[in-house]
């Protein structure tokens, strides 16, 4: 499937209506669940049943092969269509209009708190309206090649990113239960405040020659925020240790959903802008114009099987069935992250629930092409889960792993102090499913799960194929 692109003039005058992600504790390049970068290459650890075959490969050879993987798609991204009209002066692209409510640069933080000047400027920006985009907006603008495209996009980002950052800083500064006082959360607030200041102190691009300078700034912002998901998770654990409040609390859960959704959007915008500056065949910015779910699933399956062999000594077959030839414009990085997390859960459950069986039942990935959406079903015979647990699987930190998140974080710190990386694990943080759902929902999709206790679990990933759903932006 390929979306038809409008004329360059049409894209340039429209409003906003209408990559491959690296792993880590949360997805987009530091936010999800580790992954394709695993160095595990074969069986080790606990060995499986001696009569089982070791060399099982992913089925559906049509799904094999490497998809085009760009550096851009490994770090989410997204640029914007032409600045929406009629919002505020910051959207005016004429050289004489300032993009910022204020140009002075206040001092940043004092002891973890916001200075009065910075707080006032943050509030000015936070009162401005965010502009949600659709996947089709990003796709059409990247392919339009309108005159001055790079400048238009840079000017739009220069106005949009500070608004989104300002709202998150104020949100972090007003969190309940003393969460805003946790050391790790203060670090994140300082990161976001510094990124806000870097952007508002940068002159608004007025000509093409100014664009590379802004790109350097937003690239630095993206890198600075790489570890944000882990820091926020640590902040929740610090709060739990101090007063017993955890991610099960509704206010905390609402904050995490809101914050991570906003983070996805910011990184999409930044990475799309940077990818448009270095276009690659087959991509519109960071959007893979012919993203094949079967190929992404095969890549995720290979990565998960390597980790399973490293941790469990064996892995089940992963069959990729259904419409394996389907392609559509999509962020293959987002799709990979979700598929990777879901397959990790299914593979681990299958191995652990069939320890004494001579044969491991396969995990099936079934791809269906609907009128409005693509649905990917993952079906396993991993024993299922209790109905009381099904309602909790999308809670942050909920996990059935024996190693708690606190221990995994300690392991990461110990490995980091030695200059090495902690070996990839199949479970433990409890962030995989809630973050995967956030990525699925970001452009109008959904992630649901049904389980039959004593048999297995079916997970359904729904992705909007029309590209017309606006990104989910928190207030």
Which features would summarize this protein structure in a list?
globular; 475 residues; alpha+beta; 10% strand
Structure write-up:
This protein is an alpha+beta fold. It is built from 13 helices and ten strands. It has helices at 8-13, 116-126, 135-144, 149-173, 183-200, 211-224, 228-243, 250-277, 293-312, 332-353, 387-390, 405-417, 432-442; strands spanning 109-110, 113-114, 283-284, 287-291, 318-322, 328-330, 363-369, 373-379, 446-452, 456-464. Strands 5-7-8-10-9 form a five-stranded mixed β-sheet, covered by helices on one side. It is globular.
| Order of H and E elements | HEEHHHHHHHEEHEEHEEHHHEE
The percent range for strand residues is 5-15%
Uncertain runs are 6-104
Instruction: Profile the largest sheet.
Output: 5 strands, mixed
| Estimated radius of gyration | 22 Å
Estimated helix fraction = 40-55%
The first-to-last residue Cα distance is 33 Å
Instruction: Note the overall shape.
Output: globular
Task: Sum this structure up briefly.
The chain has 475 residues and is an alpha+beta fold.
Per-chain topology:
Blueprint: H1 8-13, E1 109-110, E2 113-114, H2 116-126, H3 135-144, H4 149-173, H5 183-200, H6 211-224, H7 228-243, H8 250-277, E3 283-284, E4 287-291, H9 293-312, E5 318-322, E6 328-330, H10 332-353, E7 363-369, E8 373-379, H11 387-390, H12 405-417, H13 432-442, E9 446-452, E10 456-464
Parallel strand pairs: 5-7
Antiparallel strand pairs: 1-2, 3-4, 4-6, 7-8, 8-10, 9-10
Helix pairs in contact: 2-4, 4-5, 4-8, 5-6, 5-7, 6-8, 8-13, 9-10, 10-13
